[in-house]
Amino acid sequence: MLALITGAVDDRSARGIAAAVSRLVTAGQLPAGTRLPTVRDVARELGVSPTTVSEAWRSLTRAGAIQTRGRSGTYVSAPVLPRQRLRYSQLGGRAAAVSRDLSTGVPDHDLLPDLTDALKRIGDGRLATSYLDEPVLPALEAVLRERWPFPPERLTVVDGALDALDRVIGEVVRFGDHVVVENPAFPPLLDLLQTVGATVVGVPMDADGLRPPALRRVLADYPAVAVFLQPRAHNPTGVSMSSSRAAELAEVLGDFPDVLVIEDDHAGDIATAEPVSLGSFLSERTVHVASFSKSHGPDLRLAAVGGPASVIGPVADRRLLGPGWSSRLLQGVLLDLLTDPGATAHIRKARSRYATRRAALLGALHERGVTATAADGINLWMTVDDQQIAMVTLAAHGIAVSPGAPFCVTPLAGDHVRVTVGLVADGFDDLADVLADAALLESRGSGPRARPHPRGWR
């Protein structure tokens, strides 16, 4: 058994040892119930510190691959039970009685550009001549490169931001790897990281994004392989990273040269904040995802992903064995929408209307003593006294919102719910009354309770 394990290790770091054992477990060479050699025996055979092997064992334990039974030793775990319900699925599934669903996080259909003219302008749709054509239309790639916040070594197009994140994670994250995310974070990202057995560490945020001192502490404590962040219109808080904060974070990451940065710019052209990226400072290890779902239409299913060729190349190559490419017909539609003056004017108007809606509801809530943030994008992050009571209260009014708990890597200081404010076109005062009633338990008997405006999330 000892020889089997040590013979499978080709990287003698804690991560490499954990990955080797994980492969043996997955392949059935270490079946459930197998007792593993002691930490000291493995360390002696590999010529590494027992601390290194202990860290590998801890990673495998956190991921559920092995378990320690005190003095009886450490064993390969039994096959896991069906995975717990995905965080993403906890955001939907509302009762039929709900008449106003503000839980979805989707854009207002009426603010999306009309595709009719774009479809007419691209002609008969014969944009591909071979299965071996480049995955991105050359004219679209040229436009995307002009818009990119830094010069990407390579760029491709995939089927939406989540597809991009899934494929990048598949290339760079292995079982037991530590990855750093914002806290709160986008639930589907946490689900994707869970599926590969990553160990997720959350870093708190403030009004400018990730807190640099906290990021430094986490990276010093954990051998992270990647940092995931949303540079604009953070979902759920609406925070956009400032250019000065990007510089501070880049300085921190400069001391950890093996950490990859993955940015999910999911709001795209409806974000009011200017594009900002750590790639301006760390282009050789920043992967940037630009989505067009919220600005140009979810059903286009398109996002661009660009960065170092060492990451983007394998992503593009792997797609050759599956979908091959994202529809060049839809790429043609996107190209038209990005270059047509009428379409770009429509997007500007949509961006302005979303900003007006955020400001109107946020102002009405603050007047009622409710703590909430909605700096950018289409979501509002509202502090509530009790998440479940708030959601039940709103459901009684026919309103659905998303619970805050699935967004949290570790619990925050208080309970929250996410409201898709981008879908609220009018009736801000009436909605604010209902939201305030749900948020503030004391308001039901003694009037609204004043709260300070938050400066950060812990």
Automatic annotation (TrEMBL):
KW Transcription regulation (keyword) present: yes
Keywords linked to the UniProt accession: Aminotransferase, DNA-binding, Pyridoxal phosphate, Transcription, Transcription regulation, Transferase
An annotated Gene Ontology molecular function: transaminase activity
PROSITE patterns per the UniProt record, alphabetical: HTH_GNTR
InterPro entries: Aminotransferase_I/II_large, HTH_trans_reg/aminotransferase, PyrdxlP-dep_Trfase, PyrdxlP-dep_Trfase_major, Tscrpt_reg_HTH_GntR, WH-like_DNA-bd_sf, WH_DNA-bd_sf
Statement: the UniProt record of this protein carries the keyword Ion transport: no
Annotated ranges, domain HTH gntR-type: 11-79
Entry-linked Pfam families: Aminotran_1_2, GntR
Coiled-coil stretches noted in the UniProt entry, renumbered to this chain: none
UniProt superkingdom: Bacteria
UniProt cross-references to SUPFAM superfamilies, sorted A to Z: PLP-dependent transferases (SSF53383), Winged helix' DNA-binding domain (SSF46785)
Family: In the C-terminal section; belongs to the class-I pyridoxal-phosphate-dependent aminotransferase family.
PANTHER family cross-referenced by the UniProt entry: HTH-TYPE TRANSCRIPTIONAL REGULATORY PROTEIN GABR, TRANSCRIPTIONAL REGULATORY PROTEIN
Protein name per the record: Aminotransferase class I/II-fold pyridoxal phosphate-dependent enzyme
